[in-house]
Amino acid sequence: MYQVRIISRAQRDLDSLSGKLFDHVSEAILALGENPRPQGAVKLTGLEGYRIRVRDMRVLYRINDEAKEVIVYRVKHRRDAYR
C-alpha cells in the first residue's frame, strides 16, 4: 500500500474541478495508493513520472518505491497538461 500525497499545485487544480469530474478524478487518485502503475498508466518521456487519463483530464504523478509514496503534482485538462 502506497501513501498518496497531493502537492498544493495539484490540490488547486483539483479544487477547480466540479461535480462528477471531481469525483472521478479523486477516485482515480485514491486508487493509486493500491496500484501506482494501473493499466493505462504511461511513463512520461520528457518529464519524470507517470500519467493516468481520467476522461479528458490527466493526472501527473511520481512514484517513490523506497518510501512507498505516490506524489501527485498536476491535474490538468489534456490540452494543457504538458505545457
Strand element count: 5
How many angstroms separate the termini?
31 Å
Going by helix content, strand content and strand pairing, the class is alpha+beta
- What's the overall average pLDDT, rounded? 94
Give the strand line-up of the largest sheet. 1-5-4-3-2
Number of helical elements: 2
Order of helices and strands: EHHEEEE
What global shape is seen? globular
Q: How are the SSEs placed, and which strands pair?
A:
Layout: E1 3-6, H1 8-15, H2 19-31, E2 42-43, E3 50-54, E4 57-64, E5 69-77
Parallel strand pairs: 1-5
Antiparallel strand pairs: 2-3, 3-4, 4-5
Can you walk through the features of this model?
- The structure is a single chain.
- The chain is of the alpha+beta class and 83 residues long.
- The protein is 25% helix and 34% strand.
- The chain is built from two helices and five strands.
- It has helices at residues 8-15, 19-31, and strands at residues 3-6, 42-43, 50-54, 57-64, 69-77.
- Strands 1-5-4-3-2 form a five-stranded mixed sheet.
- Strand 3 and strand 4 form a beta hairpin.
- The protein is globular.
Overview in brief:
By secondary structure, the chain is of the alpha+beta class. It is 25% helix and 34% strand. A hairpin with a 6-residue loop joins strand 2 (42-43) and strand 3.
Task: Name a few traits of the molecule.
25% helix, five-stranded mixed beta sheet, 2 helices, alpha+beta, 83 residues
